[in-house]
From TrEMBL:
It comes from the Bacteria. Residues 16-179 form the NadR/Ttd14 AAA domain. InterPro entries: NadR/Ttd14_AAA_dom (IPR038727), P-loop_NTPase (IPR027417). SUPFAM superfamilies: P-loop containing nucleoside triphosphate hydrolases. This is NadR/Ttd14 AAA domain-containing protein.
Length: 180
């Protein structure tokens, strides 16, 4: 297992999270912000799923949930630590607290190292959340959740971020350009 290094308390006001349930438009908004010239960090879960499928790995949410969560955590922590204030505003398609929410949804105990990282590696205090929106929800090769599971994810993320002291701002159900 790779060693996980957590640096002492870091607050990065330029690191802005967009969270919510799967299929609610987060990635589309992140891509639009990137087109507009902002730095962005892609969703770790999706890239891990793609890599695991390509290599016949087992760290997939439908095979080995805890392994998938730990892979997401390691990558999310690395992504956070790699962003500097010099980068300007950087938008994250999910963050470390999303791993806590995922583990809660799976009824898996949350390792202390993840709680510690979420408390000590702080993003901007304002977090944007995409609400459930059935009209845009679709499944794909990496997104196998039902709409109902996506709604449950939204509520769990809302609860998790609030518990960790973040202020949530819900993005409106409108065009991607207006959401960005």
């Amino acid at each position: 297992m790779k060693e996980i290094i957590i640096r002492t308390m870091e607050n990065k006001s330029n690191a802005i999270i967009i969270t919510g349930g799967p299929g609610m438009g987060k990635t589309s908004v992140i891509k639009q912000l990137s087109v507009m010239g902002y730095h962005s960090v892609e969703e770790t879960g999706r890239s891990i799923i793609q890599k695991e499928i390509k290599t016949d790995g087992n760290r997939l949410p439908w095979l080995y949930k805890k392994g998938f969560a730990m892979a997401m955590f390691r990558q999310s922590l690395k992504d956070f630590q790699n962003v500097s204030e010099k980068c300007g505003l950087t938008f994250f398609d999910r963050g470390i607290p999303d791993v806590i929410g995922y583990l809660k949804l799976c009824n898996i105990s949350i390792p202390e190292i993840i709680w510690q990282a979420a408390k000590e590696n702080r993003y901007n205090t304002t977090v944007f959340i995409t609400p459930p929106w059935k009209a845009i929800y679709v499944n794909d090769a990496e997104r196998k959740q039902t709409f109902e599971e996506a709604v449950a994810t939204y509520h769990t993320m809302k609860e998790t971020y609030s518990f960790l002291g973040y202020k949530l701002v819900e993005l409106p159900k409108t065009t991607v350009l207006k959401r960005a």
